[in-house]
Amino acid sequence: MNKLTSKCIDQYIDRVMNYELLTEKEIMVVCDRICDIMILEPNIRSISGDTFVVGDIHGQFSDLLYIFKTYGSPGANSYVFQGDYVDRGENSLECIVLLLLYKIAYPGNITLIRGNHEQRAINKTYGFYDEVMLKYGNPRVWNMINDVFPYFNLGCIIENRYLCIHGGISPRVTKNKLERVDRFEKITEDSIINDIIWSDPYYKPGFAPNPRGSGFLFGIDILKQFLIFNNIEMIIRSHQLAIEGYKFDFEGLCLTVWSAPDYMGKCSNPGSILFIEKDVPITSRSLRIFKKTKRML
Fold first, then answer.
1. Separation of alpha carbons 62 and 91, rounded Å
2. CB neighbours of 190 closer than 8 A, spacing ≥ 6?
3. Alpha helical stretches, state H, 120-209
4. Is 50 within the bounds of a domain?
5. Residue 22 located in a structural domain
6. Chain segment 209-235, per-residue pLDDT in tens
7. pLDDT digits over 141-180, tens only?
8. Is residue 1 part of a domain?
9. Which of 12, 38, 136, 238 gets the most CB atoms within 10 Å of its CB?
10. Domains: count for the chain
11. Which DSSP symbol is given to 264?
12. Would 59 be classed as within a structural domain?
């Protein structure tokens, strides 16, 4: 099996950024290496310092390239990605492979959080499987990458103040439980992992069933209790289309970051990423707003 040198990784990154497919054998080597790296990371990663937080990408590769071109690559900056790298868009494969390569190249500078689309049951239906079949003619690459998703972090704590997760909270979710849960377990309807990747805020008290059919809806009273109990200030999430690119809920205690502009080619929404600066409060000025970009070569 080929050894992944720094030069080799750089070459792979250049090829993927030019929309060139890696071979099945090359992707197998990448997947093996990423598992070796991420198995050593905790469920909830802790980072500090200036950080960019990116929401759902959903296969919109040109927009991901725009982010890196505009704000710098993970070689020079800290990035937290909040899941849903695949499905819906036309270039899910390029999105996830590029992020895996950057994680190998700069493991300390990039955090990959698992979203609800990072599981076979979802991405076989919403585009990723069909895309891989179109590009490779078989499902082997799709299976390899899905085998990697359980290694992804469940969340991230930034500056000991902000909890980044994909979806939201439930009656089962506490920070301590998230830190201890087996992230390699099968995701079932009654699992804590299912809750954090599916749940959403809503403007009523308490918890309620989620109309999505998975996870929960949670109110401001529940979120305030969660933040106090876990000694954090805010939840930063993605998971829901934000028509302005982002959305503050619950008196600013919950922030949704959405990074897929003109979602599915029909929503006309901008995208955003969040820039967290050390000792600077998060406000609307912390969001970097961008429009849909054309294919970049």
1. 9
2. none
3. 120-123, 128-136, 140-148, 175-180, 192-198
4. yes
5. yes
6. 999 999 999 999 999 999 999 999 999
7. 999 999 999 999 999 999 999 999 999 999 999 989 999 9
8. no
9. 238
10. 1
11. G
12. yes
In the block, tokens 């060139």 appear at: 20
Q: Which of 58, 117, 166, 239 is catalytic?
A: 117
Q: Is 239 tagged catalytic?
A: no
- Give the residues across from 242 on adjacent strands: none
Cβ–Cβ under 8 Å, residues 270 and 261 = yes
Residue 206's domain is classified under what CATH number? 3.60.21.10
Cβ partners under 8 Å of residue 78, min gap 6 = 47, 49, 50, 51, 52, 109, 110
Q: How confident is the model at residue 295 (pLDDT cuts 50, 70, 90)?
A: confident
For position 212, what pLDDT does the model report? 96
Structure tokens at 197: 């990747």
**Per-chain mean pLDDT for the chain:** 96
> 219-246 as b/e, with b when 16 or more CB fall inside 10 Å?
bbebbeebbeebebebbbbbbbbbeebb
Tokens found for residue 131? 């895309």
276: domain range? 6-290
The label of the residue with tokens 């899905």 reads: 146
